[in-house]
Amino acid sequence: MPKSYRDGLPITPDKFVDQLMRLKRGSISRRDFLGLTGLGVATAVMARELGIMPAPAYAAENLGDRMSIATWPNYHDPQTFENFKAETGVAVEVNVFGSNEEMLAKLQAGGSGWSLFVPTNYTISTYKKLGIIEPLDMAKLPNFDGKSEDVRFTAEGTIDGTIYAVPKNWGTTGFAVNTKKLSKPMSSWKEFWDTAMTEADGRTMVHDYQLTTIGNALKYYGYSFNSLKQDELAKAEELLLKVKPHLFAVSSDYQPSMRSGDAWMTMCWTNDGAQLHRDIPEIAYVLGKEGGEIWTDFYAIPKDAPNKPAGYALLNYLMNPKVAVKEHLANGAPCTDARVNALLPKEVLDNPILYPAADLLKPLEFGAAATLTDPGRAELMARFKSA
Amino acid sequence: MSETGYKPDPDNATGGRKSAGSQPAFPMRRSIFRKNLMTALLLAPATLWLVVFLVLPFVAIAIFSVGERAPEGGYQAALTFAQYANLPARATAFWNTMVLAPVGALACLLVAYPVAYYLALRAPDRWRLILLALIVIPFWTSLLMRTYAWIYILGGRGIPALLAYVGIEDLRLINTPGAVLLGIVYGYLPLMILPIYVSLERLDRRLLEASADLGATPLSTFLGVTLRLSLPGVMTGFSLVMILLLGEYLIPTLLGGGKVFFIGNALVDLFLQSRNWPFGSAIAITLVLVSVVVLIIANRISTRLSGARRVDLI
Amino acid sequence: MTAVPDIEFRAVTKRYGAVTAVSGIDLAIPPSAFVALLGPSGCGKTTCLRMIGGFEQPSEGQVLIRGRDMAGTPPYRRPVNMVFQQYALFPHLDVEENISYGLRQARPRLSSREIATRAGEALSMVQLAGYGRRKIHELSGGQQQRVALARALVNKPAVLLLDEPLAALDKKLRTDMQIELQNLQREIGITFVLVTHDQEEALSMSDFVCVMNGGRVVQLGQPSEIYDEPADLFVADFVGKTNLVSGKVAGLSGDLVDVALADGTVISARKRVPLSRGEAVSVSLRPESLSLSAPGGGVLKGVVRNRIFLGSTAEYAIEIQGIGSLLAKADHVIGQGNLFKPGEPVAIRFAAGAPLAFPHANNNGTNQREDQHAEILS
Questions:
Q1: DSSP 8-state assignment for residue C196
Q2: Which fold has domain C233-377?
Q3: Minimum Cα–Cα distance from A21: chain B residue
Q4: Could you read off the pLDDT of B272-291 as tens digits, one per residue?
Q5: Which residues in chain C have Cβ-Cβ distances shorter than 8 Å to B215?
Q6: Residue ranges per domain, chain C?
Q7: Cα(A155)–Cα(C152) distance, rounded to whole angstroms?
């Protein structure tokens, strides 16, 4: 994330080009506009060119010279893929996506071409049910150590004792506030929604994502983040429709607007919150005391992966703590692997945005698989957006 | 003096051409066959292209539209019109689109016409090509990039920051209907300018002099001759932009903050988020039908306005 | 003449950048005249017409219409109407709408009944009654020409401007329209200003011909004057057919000069400008002023090379040793078998005053003149 964001007005040509390049690389923010505008399939090629270096005897299997990964924007250290290519001769093509739904849509349609992808915890059971992912061959992942993983975050990757996905990192969904514009201290989703209609009128953003937007509206009334109950969803819808005219945007691409000062408050994921706060200290990250989402992103291999050997090789490479630590420093979300945490600097581990207090974590819920495929929530979201 | 020479003479118009029919038909038929074969060969690539990329997908979508959503999303075979019956669930999106498309096209027209007029009738010859190029060249860049640029121009670090220097604080330009309209006008401007430019360029300048000679003020000349004769270009540009706007989702999402939901957004969400392919397909079919109706109406108007001659819109 | 001229040019010059299209023209066109501006392309005649119409502004000088200086008056406020080259009819309007276009611009507004009546009259005037609802593209060239005329005349202009109105018509139609235009002008009684490069058209239709060359008026006069008494070599050559023969002034006596031709023959010619002894001159000999007879006597002797029999007349190309080819035109009288055959030697005579002597190559139309001479003989 370029720190130049903070200095000076207005944007310089350099910065603009920089932003465009970031856009091209697909590293604007997690679930950024590319995904939300349906262009998630737009592929940013990071290391497309053929490997010039000869493939070393990295593995007994032939890894080929290229593979493709589907992940979230701004989620990796680009150097990781460069290094992987240097070691194995396999160029990694990075496809960035905006939502789990979109990844699922692409995999359901078939022919995605991915050999590795990064689904969020609550989707894994659906992928398994649809037969889209295959059990991982742990023999090919010597760098993974299940004993060093925090079971709270990793459980959903294992179904009926079989490991289908291994964790990358975890995080929370709260909201970011520009405290210079909104000085009133806030600590709950009730305050978030109420402020959106008053002091932050026209300056608030919510995700273009049914899980969090509906989920956090449910939290206003203290209902479960994952509720599928008709009456509870009706209440949430009522709130959303009331807030709609006061919103600045319904978009998961909230970093630019928060940075430019157009938006003062937004629903926010841990890693974005950490990045925003790092660059603009007056932007605070708040977890609603009523609860909300806690999540883990996993790595999984599609059943129709065209280059499984390379998929396994990259996954194993990413599981190397020395590699993973760089990934976490780049992306900012907390890690599930104790071996990695041991390598992280103290100030990262002490960052309350990444590692909130236990009483704030307690009420958080993991997303429920049913919300992913529930037509009722999808229609509610459509009604909210078209209102 | 005799006038008969000037009057239309139906006998004379077709006279003297009858002998051709009395020739033996066989060689004619053979050459017609050869001509038809040639035509068929020439048309084959385009036909194949149309079948593979237009007809087949359209048929697939039509089949999807009478299906059902599978429990986990996607398509499940069925024969039901439930998806069409459910169309009112996206009534707002349809309504927003039916407002946006003509309003956006109109705004585009209001900006494009003076530009095209200047280019065709006022710009010095040596500048004309350069100016045209300046209008077309940005079009080579992806619309996404260009629209994204507007986010920065209209965003807090752009124009509002400049205005803050002169004391206008906290002005919000981005994510407003105005920003969406601006983006649409900007994005579709060349599509509107070029057809109008072409029709104005073809305009016989002497007609303008004739009009002035007959006592028409510049305004009357503009309304009675220039505008009137450029209407085919106007209609082409208008329907082109309007059809594209019927499916537009990018600009409203980026510059409107995703708060206004168009039918294009509904489609994107249905296919890529909730994976309700059958419903999405039903909407897509409906959108195509609406577009066809719009085209037919536009063509009618255009034909009527430009006199008897037919005008092809695209 | 006490009447105010309908059109008056006072020292009018028009420049386009470095190019001078019209250079210091003074011209007065009397009321109710049919005037032709005649000249080769690029002579400035169309520019003059457009300055009257208001489509061009003079760089210097004044254009007056009925005594009013038109400087700064836009075309739509001038009491003149134009019939454009290729007519410039409005393709989106039908015949009647075209004709009533000007009436609908009138302020104060005319009643729709009056517009309809006047448009109907105009249609009848050009013999197109019943064609009101036709589309322009459904009309023949001649009909379009009539619509253009009606569209201009319906506004009752002080002056009707015609820019090469007959150029797009075939020869037969052109001749008909020439007569019709003349009749119209006499009936309506307003001034017609016709621009044409066709000298026959200019001579046959107009009361006055204004011959232009190189942005200047070379001669203004009645058609017969222009033809019989051309002001200079250019006019002599451009208007009608003529033979140009080079020579030197051998003697002067009053209006007449003796010109020694290349073969030594001395002929007597009239001069239009002062000449001096020994000066190189071109002598213009109209073909019809030459009379042919059997060898013996005559001023010049030659051999018939070609004969073109035209019915009432016959034209002969006669080769004269040392001088070149001359064109002669002889009336043919029925029963008087005086046709000469190619190859036959002939004697050529002409009246003493018939040849006109002009200074040789002293004006800027020289090259053009020679080109045209070549055309005439070819």
A1: E
A2: OB fold (Dihydrolipoamide Acetyltransferase, E2P) (2.40.50)
A3: B145
A4: 888 889 999 999 999 999 88
A5: 76-77, 102, 105-106, 155
A6: 7-228, 233-377
A7: 92
